[in-house]
C-alpha cells in the first residue's frame, strides 16, 4: 500500500479551497501516481478556532478560516467513498499543550501531524539569514530544534512527526558526531512516545535537495521499531505522490517493510508498495 499523508487542501493557485471538488483533484492525481490513500493536513494556524494560541503576525494574518468547514469537506468526501483521511498539521507550542488538546478534541481526526516551524517565536524554515538562524550559530539552532521535536513527541498530541529533520532545510549542519547524537537521542524519545515518523519528499524541493529524514536518522528510528508514513507535503494536486519511488527506496534501505495507515487515530501496518 502507498499512502500520502501530508498535503494541504488548496486549489491549483494554492488558495485554500475547502470543497469536495478540491478533494477530488488531489484524489485524481493520487490515482495517476498509484497512491492508494491520501490524507489532508492543513496548517493549524489557518483556523480561527485556534487564534488564541498564536502571537506571530505570520500566524495571526492567516488565522481566519473555519475549521468546521475544512473538516466537513474532507469528511463529506470520505463518506462518498473517496480514499481520503482527515488530519491536521499542528505546530508544537511548548506550554500550550492543554489548549491545543482542547481545541482539537471535538473533531473526528484520523491522525494529527506534529511539526516544529518556530522556536521561541523565531522561524526555522523561512530563510537561512532570518528567524533563528539570524540569532544563533548552526549548532545551537540544531540543538534547540531537536529539543522541541522531542517535546512534540512526548506531548501525546500527535500520531506522526512531519518532516522530522526540517532544520536541515538550508543545508547547514553541525559536525557529523553532533548530528548523529541528535538523531539517536531523538529516536529514543520517539520510540518512547509511540508516534510514527514521516518520510517526506518535500525536502527534494528545498535548498537542501534531500528527503526528510536523513538516512542515519531513519535508521536510528527503524532500529527502535518506530513506524513510518510517507508524504509529499503537496500544496497543489500536481505534487501528490511526487518522487515516491525515492521515499519508498529510502524506507526499504533502512529496513522498513510496512507503512502506517490511520483510521480514527488508530493505526495498523500494511506492506509498502
Word description of this protein:
The strands form three sheets. A seven-stranded parallel β-sheet has the order 1-2-3-4-7-8-9. Strands 5-6 form a two-stranded antiparallel ribbon. The protein is 35% helix and 18% strand. It has helices at 20-32, 57-62, 67-79, 97-104, 138-154, 176-193, 215-223, 244-254, and strands spanning 3-4, 37-43, 84-91, 111-115, 118-119, 122-123, 160-161, 196-200, 228-231, 258-263, 266-271. Strand 7, helix 6 (176-193) and strand 8 form a beta-alpha-beta unit. Helix 5 packs parallel to helix 6 (176-193) and helix 6 (176-193) runs parallel beside helix 7 (215-223). The longest helix is centred in the C-terminal third of the chain and has 18 residues, at 176-193. It is built from eight helices and eleven strands. It is of the alpha/beta class and 273 residues long.
Helix run count: 8
SSE-based structural type: alpha/beta
- Helix-strand string: EHEHHEHEEEHEHEHEHEE
Report the count of strand segments. 11
How far apart the termini lie comes to 5 Å
What's the overall geometry? globular
Name the beta content range: 15-25%
The strand line-up of the biggest sheet is: 1-2-3-4-7-8-9
Fraction of residues in H or I helices: 25-40%
State the major sheet: 7 strands, parallel
Rg over CA atoms, rounded to whole Å, is 17 Å
Low-confidence stretches: none
Q: Provide the residue-averaged pLDDT.
A: 97
